[in-house]
Specification:
Blueprint: H1 3-19, E1 23-24, E2 37-42, E3 47-57, E4 63-72, E5 93-105, E6 114-117, H2 119-137, E7 139-144, H3 148-161, E8 171-178, E9 181-188, E10 191-195
Antiparallel strand pairs: 1-2, 2-3, 3-4, 4-5, 5-6, 7-8, 8-9, 9-10
């Protein structure tokens, strides 16, 4: 599902209310509370807001997307009244609620075409991205070096520890990857030297 499908769903909801005899209520449509967009409709008795907004579920995966909320104004809002009349989005008496979770991009970066789905699809996609990222950046196993690296490590131990005769069988050089950055270490007996 793409953003065009979300636009289509928003339009279908508004069209359905217009088919039922609702008209646009211009007096309450001024201003913004940070939402993507809204349309206010009235039948002469109540005011209904159809709202498109972004959301973030701050769970372990931080899923986000768009939501369409349809609700009646609970404040003292009169239909067809003009002036600065505010309908607070967080005070709507919700009639319908549709969530469209971000699943993926068609290309890398912010400007790629975004695709949306339900919560299960978004969770599966986020877990897959996390798995790929952790597999790429977090390597906890040590990679040991020999040959030239040992000769370099010998000079490091001599310089840092002030030892003249270094026993090569007690000398280790290895690399780890923590937080996506490589770290190199020289271990001599029980002493550890971090290389930059």
């Amino acid at each position: 599902m793409a953003i065009t499908d979300i636009n289509r769903k928003f339009t279908e909801i508004v069209s359905d209310y217009i088919r039922r005899g609702f008209t646009i209520n211009i007096g309450t449509m001024g201003g913004s509370q940070g939402e993507e967009g809204h349309v206010d409709l009235t039948n002469g008795e109540i005011v209904i807001r159809v709202l498109l907004d972004r959301f973030v579920d701050y769970g372990e995966l931080g899923l986000d997307g768009y939501e369409i909320v349809v609700g009646t104004a609970t404040d003292a809002v009169k239909p067809n009244e003009y002036g600065h009349v505010v309908i607070w989005n967080n005070r709507l008496d919700v009639i319908e609620h549709h969530k469209f979770y971000f699943v993926s991009n068609s290309s890398y970066g912010t400007y790629g075409k975004k695709f949306f789905g339900d919560g299960a699809a978004a969770k599966a996609a986020a877990e897959k991205r996390f798995e790929r990222c952790s597999g790429k950046h977090e390597v906890n196993e040590r990679k040991r070096f020999t040959g030239k690296a040992i000769r370099i490590a010998e000079s490091v131990v001599k310089r840092h520890m002030g030892i003249k005769n270094v026993s090569k069988d007690k000398l280790e050089v290895y690399k780890t990857c923590e937080g996506g950055k490589n770290k190199y270490f020289v271990k001599y007996r029980s002493n550890l030297i971090t290389l930059k």
